[in-house]
Structure formats: structure tokens, C-alpha cells
From TrEMBL:
PANTHER family according to UniProt: BETA-GALACTOSIDASE RELATED
Family matches, as InterPro entries: B-gal_1-like, BetaGal1-like_ABD1, BetaGal_gal-bd, Galactose-bd-like_sf, GH, Gly_Hdrlase_35_cat, Glycoside_Hdrlase_35
Highest classification ranks of the organism: Bacteria, Bacillati, Bacillota, Erysipelotrichia, Erysipelotrichales
UniProt record similarity statement: Belongs to the glycosyl hydrolase 35 family.
Protein name (record): Beta-galactosidase
Source species, domain of life: Bacteria
Domain Glycoside hydrolase 35 catalytic per the UniProt entry, residue ranges: 10-328
Organism field: Massilimicrobiota timonensis
Keyword terms: Glycosidase, Hydrolase
Length: 589
């Protein structure tokens, strides 16, 4: 059995250890590539791997748990142990991580009046139920049980959100009650207000800091905070940022490798460190987060490349080589463990409009008034709201009241307009038929819930139409909701009509050998998602900064492969190209 003690230093199995760690999120990398990433981490000179654990991934619907495939955290922990790595486990309720709602499950929003990340009775009841399933699974991998977990996180940057000490105490008690026995830490920005608000002054909980430069100044603040509260613990930066995340329609953020290395040298002289990120990976599916702004939110992109030490697809960067030389003294450069592949162009085989096949790929719910996505138990992606109405004039006016995030409006299958957050609620004029009932459809997209800051609350993060729809000046009643289910794309009847607008585009091609990872060029498409053999690769948007989506090799197969693109703007091409490198868009052109 192993041991870890917290004194002025970390004592692991009785010996002083400086933790040199890298962040690897198992849920952003396909399991087939986990070992490659961890071996690269070891080769760079790290002795520890750190990972978050997203609640919304493991309990996607209340009471339904998923630990299979990319969600198999036990397999990840076991692999890290086999390779000789220590593990820092950040299984806190909230993770931020530029992940959908910071990892909090959207079904929490169904509870009226719930206050997230507080000692709210309903929130704590939901959290305890989740912890009762998760923590016994992971606790068996702690160091004193011959596993690798040496540290566990209480909450994440709580000092940038709240100061509810009763909440922190209750989370800590749940962790201990359900088997977490290793030392527990908090992680906050290194200014006094954040440290005071986010810490739990307790002999079993110690503070760490998050920053990406000016290590000496930041560690001095943390050290003085610990002295002021008589805390004996090692100095550690829990998130030393080596890059940054990216948003739609903004330039890719890059950090100079040499400047980064100089900052790392300073940090390593002071204490222990976890590099955030070592390998960023991909926000597969709907899991990208969103930055909060007063006037509107700014959703983040599918790629979580982060300008990290390894690229999104696991290739070694200049930062990697410089870091390896700094930590290990080795100057020869290691090759990448995998190779990307270009599969060339693929012609479109079939194309069909969403409205022609909508009943085949939807769960249909009728209600008097429009329901939010949370009320529909359809938390991510798209909902089409449909309503029939009689018009008495050739021109009508419409307002959608309080919807999130982006809406596209169609009357009798004719495009009327598109609105994003700052425009939703503005009046739209449109032509109507006097002879027949008019068919109104509103395609609503959830582009990602806020993952950080004051907007992370139940009353701001509900998606879909949240109040209602005015035609003329009255609210309209009797709605159908088409909750689009992209697991049903095999049921699409491709012989149905293409009438423009939102549509599915099918591409079929053959691979003769074991597939390699590749990138699909989507620069000729407007906005939407890509499915590869049923795997949801994520979102694309022609505003950039990315013009491609990453396709891991395991998403492909030897033989026939099917790519389905769901595109919402009516902007598309008759062929796609599969490249061996990612594509970036100059947003200034």
C-alpha cells in the first residue's frame, strides 16, 4: 500500500516528491489514444497526470449513469497506474474547463428555484446521488489502495463564483463519506479575495493557485495566504496555462513557446506544477462551453487544441520539445506516435431537406405553449417549434420572446430570418397566405451553456423558447416540438425532397487499410454538425476560426464509411475533402 502526506512538501511513500503534472481529459480523447498521450507525458518528464470528471457526461439524465467508452474513467485510471503515473483527480461538481455548463448537468435546471454551486437543498440532494455512484468507483484507485490517485479537488475556482463555506463543508463531507481519503485541495486565482472566498480552512484541505505566468508574484500571494491561516502545505500551481481556448469568429490564440518555457523555469524553481493543458483534445458532440458577456454570450468552438503542449490530434509541438529538454535534459526530438492521413475528395451521394424527413429523426411533443429544452428533456442540439396559424392580411409580424441561443424562422418552408441573442425579440415582417393555414417553423439551436462566471445560474441557462411567440401582438397557442435526434440518421429516407434550407448531406467512401485520423474540410459549408459513422465530431461554423473538424481514426473503419453533415444555412458543396492537417480561417478576410 502507498501513502501521501502533506507537509511543507509532498511526501509520497515517505519520500519528498515535486509533482510535475500534465492535464489530460480522458473525455476529450478517444480511448484508443489514451496510452499514446500518457506515454508522451512520461517521455516529457512528468510524474503525474491530472483530469477533470464532468458530471453531465456521466449522468446525462437524472438517475441514468454512463461510464462506457470515452467515459470509462476507471479504465483511464487503471492505465495511468499501469504506466507508473500519479493521478490528480478533479471530480468536483463543477469543472469549468470550457465544457458545457462547466460540467453541471442541464437537467438540474428543471428544478424551479434551484441555486447551483451552493448548499441549496435540492442541488445538494442531486449532488449526493451522483457522488454515491461516482466516488466509490474512483476511490478504489487511491494510492493507499495500491492505486495512483494522490490528490482530489474539492471545488473548482469557487472563489471566482461564491463564498458559501457551508456548501464547501458539505461537499467535503460527501467526498469523505463516499470514500475519498487522499488529501483534498482547492484551486483558485491567486488574488486574496478569490483565495479567501474559495478556500476551506481545514487541516485536510489545502489551497493551490491557477495562473500562466509571473510565478514568483503569484506564489508569494499564495504563500502569504497560507501563512496568514497557518496552513502547512506545498506551493503548487494547479493550472499553469500554456495556451488558451477559442471562440467562434475570433482569432486563434497562440503563445510563444520560448516565452512559455521561461515562465515554466520560474515556476519549477518554486514548487509543484500541473500544466493546463498537456493534451487538449476535442469537445465532441455538443459539449463546447460558452463565455459569458453582459450583452451576449460567446460560444466556444469544437476544437480544444488550446495551443497545448500536444495538438488536438496528439502531435508534439515546439513547446513539447522545449519542455522535454528543460525537464529531462534530453535534446533529441521524439517522433509523433501516430500519423494523420489525407483521403482526398468525396462526392455527395444524397441530400434531403430537414423538413422533408423531420418526423423520421425527431421525438415529437405537443403542448399548448412552447416548452424549453429542459422541459422537453432534450438538453442539447436543436428543436424545431411548429405552429399553424390563420392570417387575415398579406403581411404579418412576429416576435420570439426570450429564446436561446440562435433561431431560424420559416413560414410555409420559406426562410424568413435568423436571430441571435442580441436580436431575439426584434419584430420580423413576412408574407402570409390568406387562403390556407400558414405553417410556422422555428429552428432553435443551443450553442453551448455558460461554463464560468455570474451567468452560471438556472434562470439564465435554459435553452429553447423560454416565454413564447407573438404573431401580430398576441401570444400563440398550440405547438409541436420536434426534438432532433441525430442517433436516428439511419432512418432518413434519402428519396425525399430537397427544398433548400436546413438539410442533411450524405457522403460515402471506402478505406482499404486500417484508418488513420484525418480532418474534414467544411469551409464550403455554412453552419452545422458532422457525423462520421454515427460518431458526433462536433460543430462547424463558416465564421471561423476553424475550417475543419478532427476525425479520430477509430471513428472510421476499413470498408465503407458514411459521413452525414447537417447544415442549417443552405450553404453547402457537392464534395468534401479529407485532409491530413487542420484548416484555419482568417477571420479578417
Amino acid at each position: 500500500m502507498g501513502s501521501i502526506e502533506i507537509k511543507k512538501d509532498f511526501y509520497i511513500n515517505g519520500k519528498v516528491v515535486k509533482i510535475i503534472s500534465g492535464a489530460v481529459h480522458y473525455f476529450r480523447i478517444v480511448p484508443e489514444y489514451w496510452e499514446d498521450t500518457l506515454l508522451d507525458l512520461i517521455d516529457m518528464g512528468c510524474n503525474t497526470v491530472e483530469t477533470y470528471v464532468p458530471w453531465n457526461l456521466h449522468e446525462p439524465k437524472q438517475g441514468e449513469y454512463d461510464f462506457d467508452g470515452i467515459k470509462d474513467i476507471e479504465r483511464f485510471l487503471s492505465l495511468a497506474h499501469q504506466l507508473g503515473l500519479y493521478v490528480i483527480l478533479r471530480a468536483s461538481p463543477y469543472i469549468c474547463a470550457e465544457w458545457e455548463m462547466g460540467g453541471l448537468p442541464a437537467w438540474l435546471l428543471k428544478y424551479s428555484g434551484i441555486r447551483l454551486r451552493s448548499d441549496d437543498e435540492q442541488y445538494m440532494k442531486c449532488l449526493e446521488q451522483y457522488f454515491s455512484i461516482l466516488l466509490p468507483k474512483v476511490s478504489q484507485y487511491q494510492i493507499h489502495k495500491n492505486g495512483s490517485i494522490i490528490l482530489a479537488q474539492l471545488e473548482n475556482e469557487y472563489g471566482s463564483y461564491g463564498e458559501d463555506k457551508e456548501y464547501l463543508k458539505k461537499v467535503f463531507k460527501l467526498m469523505r463519506d463516499y470514500g475519498i481519503q487522499v488529501p483534498v485541495f482547492t484551486a483558485d486565482g491567486t488574488w486574496n479575495e478569490a483565495l479567501e472566498a474559495g478556500s476551506l480552512i481545514n487541516e485536510d484541505v489545502f489551497p493551490t493557485g491557477n495562473f500562466g505566468s509571473h510565478a514568483k508574484e503569484n506564489m508569494e500571494i499564495l504563500e502569504k495566504f497560507m501563512q496568514r491561516h497557518d496552513i502547512e502545505a506545498p506551493l503548487m500551481c494547479m493550472e499553469f496555462w500554456d495556451g488558451w481556448f477559442n471562440r467562434w469568429n475570433q482569432e486563434i490564440i497562440r503563445r510563444n513557446p520560448q516565452e512559455f518555457i521561461e515562465s515554466v523555469k520560474e515556476m519549477l524553481e518554486i514548487g509543484s506544477v500541473n500544466f493546463y493543458m498537456f493534451h487538449g483534445g476535442t469537445n465532441f458532440g455538443w459539449m463546447n462551453g460558452c463565455s459569458a458577456r453582459k450583452e451576449k454570450d460567446l460560444p466556444q468552438i469544437t476544437s480544444y487544441d488550446y495551443d497545448a503542449i500536444l495538438t488536438e490530434y496528439g502531435a508534439k509541438t515546439e513547446k513539447y520539445h522545449l519542455m522535454r529538454e528543460l525537464i529531462t535534459g534530453e535534446q533529441h526530438r521524439l517522433e509523433n506516435r501516430r500519423k494523420t492521413c489525407s483521403y482526398g475528395s468525396v462526392k455527395c451521394k444524397n441530400r434531403v431537406s430537414l423538413f422533408s424527413v423531420i418526423e423520421q429523426i425527431s421525438t415529437i411533443i405537443e403542448n399548448s405553449w412552447p416548452l424549453t429544452m429542459e422541459e422537453l428533456d432534450h438538453y442539447y442540439g436543436y428543436v424545431v417549434y411548429q405552429h399553424d396559424f390563420q392570417s387575415y392580411t398579406k403581411q404579418s409580424r412576429l416576435r420570439v420572446i426570450d429564446a436561446r441561443d440562435r433561431i431560424q424562422i420559416y413560414v410555409n418552408n420559406k426562410f424568413i430570418g435568423v436571430q441571435y441573442q442580441e436580436e431575439i425579440g426584434d419584430e420580423i415582417l413576412f408574407e402570409t397566405s390568406l387562403d390556407n393555414q400558414n405553417d410556422l417553423k422555428i429552428l432553435v439551436e443551443n450553442m453551448g451553456r455558460v461554463n464560468y462566471g455570474a451567468k452560471l445560474q438556472a434562470d439564465t441557462q435554459k435553452k429553447g423558447i423560454r416565454t413564447g411567440v407573438l404573431i401580430d401582438i398576441h401570444f400563440t397557442k398550440k405547438w409541436k416540438h420536434y426534438c432532433l435526434n441525430f442517433n436516428k440518421t439511419d432512418a432518413i429516407d434519402w428519396s425525399k425532397e430537397y427544398i433548400g434550407g436546413p438539410a442533411f448531406h450524405q457522403f460515402v467512401f471506402t478505406i482499404d487499410e486500417i484508418p488513420n485520423e484525418t480532418f474534414i474540410d467544411v469551409t464550403n459549408f455554412g453552419k452545422g454538425i458532422v457525423l462520421v459513422n454515427g460518431h458526433h465530431c462536433g460543430r462547424f461554423y463558416q465564421v471561423g476560426p476553424t475550417g475543419s473538424l478532427y476525425i479520430p481514426g477509430p471513428f472510421l473503419k476499413r470498408g465503407e464509411n458514411v459521413i452525414v453533415i447537417f447544415e442549417t444555412e443552405g450553404v453547402f458543396a457537392d464534395e468534401i475533402i479529407l485532409n491530413d492537417k487542420p484548416i484555419y480561417i482568417d477571420i479578417h478576410k
